[in-house]
Amino acid sequence: MNLRIVCAGFALALAVGAAPSQTIEQLQQRLGAGASSPGLPMRGADIPLVEKPWEKISDQQLFDHGKVALGYDPKAWKHAETDHFVVHYRRMTDAKKVVRQAEFYYQQIKSDLQVTQDRFDRKNHIFVFEKAPEWQQFLSDARINAWAAGVASRSELFFLSRQHDDFAAGTLAHEITHCIFYRFVGKPIPLWLNEGFAEFESGNAYAKFKGIGGGKRGSGKQGAANFPLRKLLEARVYPEDKEQIQEFYRTSERLVRFLLTKLDRKQFVPLAMKLADGASLETAVMEIYPGKFKSFDEFVERYQKFD
């Protein structure tokens, strides 16, 4: 089952795209068998949740979409929180599934990025809608396309729960990666970087959550990843053609995977910060990796040989 996703706020412009779900078997074939990273619990640990009234939640700061979702009556929602997330829900079973994955992804992404401290000292808010009518009302009130089944905006995530679909496999991982990455950068970043990192980590983190490996390739999407580099770096909105959209995703993941696996991973967040501050990839690469490349042309040449 494929969910249509809106990713708003974290990209440079309103980002609309499709994040196709994958089965466990597809991910296993693409990534190979393996275990979770050392120190990370296999498949995620059960997270104890205690329902709290809204006024007892430790972090009540919301962005615009969060305020719309909460509505005029916070008591209409049930609320609970973990170390890094506040979840708003109707059914406790939904809330437990979501935070179990969310906390696992947070720790996995933090480990993958080799960072020790968040730049965002607030909690991520996750709203889990149960019924389609209330979801459609939220989309209308928030002025979001009516076909969307999920919204990632800054540090907040909103989606319609679907029973019996395991939250569309890696789709939740993709969208929540946007929110978690915001914790370590805290600023809007280029579209290719936003989507490329979410594609890379959604496959890896979800595979490790399921205990089937991860690390070589992110989302596991098949097909060409040769979207023109200049157009990729300059993109502020998604391509209109469906095939080009998919190649845009694959190429973004390929570039991010090159940066993460072939260069110093500890420098990935500093690179993202440079890009968030408006630097070109050429300027950022030459400053963050001094002496690694004689020129940006050499960087491009090595990337183009990478698969």
Plain-language structure description:
- Mean pLDDT is about 80; it is low at about 1-40.
- This protein is globular.
- Helix 3 crosses helix 6 (about 190-210) and helix 5 packs across helix 6 (about 190-210).
- The protein is of the alpha/beta class and about 300 residues long.
- About 45% of the residues are buried.
- Helix content is about 45%, strand content about 10%.
- It has helices at about 25-30, 65-70, 90-115, 130-140, 170-185, 190-210, 230-235, 240-260, 270-275, 280-290, 295-305, and strands at about 5-10, 15-20, 80, 85-90, 125-130, 150-155, 155-160.
- Strand 4 (about 85-90), helix 3 (about 90-115) and strand 5 (about 125-130) form a beta-alpha-beta unit.
- The chain has a single domain (about 5-220), classed as Collagenase ColT, N-terminal domain (Glutaredoxin), CATH 3.40.30.160.
- It contains eleven helices and seven strands.
- The protein has a seven-stranded mixed sheet with strand order 2-1-6-7-5-4-3, with helices on both faces.
- The longest helix is centred in the middle third of the chain and has 22 residues, at about 90-115.
Which tags fit this structure?
single chain; disordered N terminus; 7 strands; 307 residues; alpha/beta; seven-stranded mixed beta sheet; Glutaredoxin
Q: Could you give a short description of this structure?
A:
This protein is of the alpha/beta class.
What's the CATH architecture?
Answer: 3-Layer(aba) Sandwich
User: What is the strand tally?
Assistant: 7
The Cα radius of gyration reads: 19 Å
Strand/helix succession: EEHHEEHEHEEHHHHHHH
Structural class: alpha/beta
The name of the CATH superfamily reads: Collagenase ColT, N-terminal domain
Strand content: 5-15%
Helix content: 40-55%
User: What does the overall shape look like?
Assistant: globular
CATH topology tier name: Glutaredoxin
Average pLDDT metric: 82
Biggest sheet features: 7 strands, mixed
Total of domains: 1
